[in-house]
Design goal:
The complex is a heterodimer of chains A (418) and B (179). With 418 residues, chain A is mainly α. In chain A, strands 2-1-3 form a three-stranded antiparallel β-sheet, with no helix packed on it. In chain A, α2 packs across α9, α4 packs antiparallel against α7 and α10 packs across α12. The radius of gyration of chain A is 23 Å and the shape is globular. Chain B is built from five helices and four strands, in the order βαβαααβαβ. In chain B, strands 2-3-1-4 form a four-stranded antiparallel β-sheet. In chain B, α3 packs antiparallel against α4. The chains are: A mainly alpha (418), B alpha+beta (179).
């Protein structure tokens, strides 16, 4: 079959522009309308959207590397779609950098630990702060012994070095995979494939460490006093399933409008299985973290759930768990449901939003406390960033042949049927 | 007594079996069954086997396990002999549900797995000690057999043999059996 280019035009393109326009309006209007101290709500919202869409792109990069490391054949025809999704990484990284820089320059107070006054135990008579007691020194009321104990890890130098290393690693691997993938289209053979196989495995090693540390640094540190050892896996499973949902909906749409004839029911069924399986992984990790903290009921740990389950966030928090666990479990467990787009698409959209709420609930309770609102700013920027995301993904998709013409597993993938 | 003929065509590779089955079915031949040492992907729709309902049974076993585990935990930990373990349970099933979820989950999996395995073995007649029904012991080893009956086909046994011999089989045999 002739390798066709995907055409991104017409209504779909206009829709992404409309969504982006809505997003810009929401961000501008939201900023002007946000009277919280330091525009906290606006910045928290930017972090939620920045991280959510960045993590989808990162999930695609992980999944892509996984397909190579495991020598998977079924996904060969889909690989350009995953490439397109991870092409959003630079844009997502930029949004995250803006939020982190905003914190570093004290434009907002999402990260309480970025306040340097917390680390000094004493106030000296001349108004400066000190770690050591001296004549006339008084106790610093802002001093926080727990955060101070983490000062080595949370020092700005180390924090920024880590952040830049994560982002650089992701971007370098993404660029490399894309370059080799396009080169394979030209020269063929298996040499590049084996190179990708080795680099894919190598990326997974980096990803295993960096995805965890990244989520501690950017998300868990919001609740600075609190920690959870499986937080990294929890974030990772969330990004994985959000990515799978996005890919499933995209593929279904492309198939419905006839621009991806190589896709079979079996490919879509496999995507459905992935969505189902990783939804269960996410639920498992959510519950594992929740149950141990709930059971031991130690004040320094349980505050995280007190802030979410015994406040105004209660409905959203429990609703989010219901959306992300019960709905995919009971609806997608049947084979016929996974093969039926009238089940797959509504459920996918619901859990996509569910995972957005999940990220929102990681950020909002620790930054906005009881002042959070889910209003025009949040809805508008969720849709706005979605428009931007789709736009970037489809722009990357239309530039290259949709089918990787020289992938060694291409025939196996096209013949996928069971 | 009606006698009928059964034709066994053996292949030494699963892809050969799949190709042969497709060719035979394309000629309008009905294949009664296929014997193979492992599942051959894609053979079911070719020879017209209906989808298994084992998954539904498995779900029902799992729900049985969930209910039994809930009932048991309520009786052991709430009703009969409530124990205070780190402040929990608190004499109420609902408030203690998170602590019971791992047990409920494991028991559901146990019931689903055992129930599914037993149902499968019973339905196939392959419980330990049951007589073997495969035509040749080599189909549990490295051989693949297509079974055709002349009573189920418009063609005679000889015509079936002729059609099968064109699919380059490893071995062929025809036997009489009592219908």
């Amino acid at each position: 079959m002739e390798a066709k280019q995907f055409q991104f035009e017409g209504r779909a393109k206009k829709l992404t522009y409309a969504l982006m326009g809505l997003g810009v309006v929401a961000l501008v209007f939201g900023f002007l309308n946000d009277h919280s101290h330091g525009h906290q709500r606006w910045w928290a919202n930017l972090l939620v959207n920045g991280f959510f869409y960045f993590s989808i792109a990162l999930g695609a990069l992980f999944f892509y590397a996984l397909q190579y490391a495991t020598e998977s054949g079924w996904s060969a025809v889909l690989k350009r779609v995953f490439e397109a999704i991870f092409s959003y990484l630079p844009v997502g990284a930029l949004v995250i950098l803006v939020v982190l820089l905003g914190g570093q320059f004290h434009l907002h107070h999402l990260y309480h630990w970025m306040d340097s006054t917390l680390y000094y135990e004493f106030l000296l008579p001349d108004g400066s702060m000190s770690h050591e007691a001296a004549d006339g020194a008084v106790a610093n009321p802002a001093f926080d012994a727990i955060i101070s104990g983490k000062s080595a890890y949370l020092s700005p130098g180390f924090f920024w070095a880590r952040t830049l290393v994560y982002l650089a690693t992701y971007l370098i691997f993404a660029k490399m995979f894309r370059k080799w993938s396009l080169e394979e289209d030209r020269i063929g053979g298996t040499k590049l494939h084996y190179k990708m196989y080795r680099r894919g495995a190598l990326f997974l090693v980096f990803f295993a460490v960096f995805s965890s540390m990244m989520s501690w640094d950017w998300l868990m540190s919001i609740d600075t006093h609190w920690f959870s050892t499986l937080f990294g896996w929890y974030i990772f499973s969330g990004m994985w399933v959000s990515m799978l949902i996005f890919a499933t909906v995209t593929l279904t749409w492309m198939r419905a409008r006839g621009s991806f004839p190589q896709l079979t029911d079996s490919h879509m069924h496999d995507m459905g299985k992935w969505v189902f399986a990783i939804s269960m992984l996410w639920s498992y990790l959510f519950f594992s973290q929740f149950m141990l903290i709930w059971y031991s009921n130690i004040p320094e740990e349980v505050t995280y759930y007190i802030a979410r389950m015994f406040t105004d966030y209660k409905v959203m928090f429990l609703g989010m768990f219901f959306m992300n666990f019960a709905v995919p479990f009971y609806v997608l467990i049947a084979r016929d449901a996974k093969r039926n787009i009238y089940f797959m698409i509504p459920v996918s959209i619901l859990i996509f939003f569910g995972h957005y709420l999940d990220v929102y609930l990681l950020v909002a309770p620790g930054t906005l406390h009881s002042h959070a609102e889910f209003g025009f700013l949040e809805w508008g920027s969720f849709l706005g960033f979605l428009g931007l995301f789709i736009h970037v993904v489809f722009r990357a998709l239309e530039k290259v042949p949709l089918i990787p013409v020289n992938h060694p597993f291409l025939e196996e993938s096209k013949a996928l049927n069971y | 007594m009606v006698t009928s003929k059964v034709l066994h065509v053996m292949y030494d590779d699963d892809s050969k079996l799949l190709d042969a089955a497709s060719k035979l079915v394309a000629q309008g031949i009905h294949i009664n069954d296929v014997y193979s040492p492992f599942p051959v992907h894609g053979i079911d729709p070719v020879i017209g086997i209906k989808r298994t309902r084992l998954a539904i049974v498995s779900f029902m076993f799992a729900m049985t396990g969930t209910s039994l585990a809930l009932l048991g935990l309520w009786y052991f930990m709430i009703s009969d002999w409530p124990m205070n373990i780190g402040g929990k349970p608190s004499f109420s099933l609902w408030e203690n549900i998170p602590a019971f979820v791992p047990v409920i989950f494991e028991f559901s999996v146990l019931c689903a797995a055992h129930g599914m395995a037993l149902t499968y073995l019973l339905r196939n007649g392959t419980l330990p000690g049951m007589p073997a029904t495969n035509p040749d012991p080599r189909t549990t080893d490295n051989m693949f057999v297509i079974e055709m009956l002349d009573s189920e086909n418009e063609m005679s046994a000889e015509e079936l043999e002729a059609a099968a011999s064109k699919t380059s089989p490893f071995e062929m045999s025809t036997k009489q059996y009592e219908a």
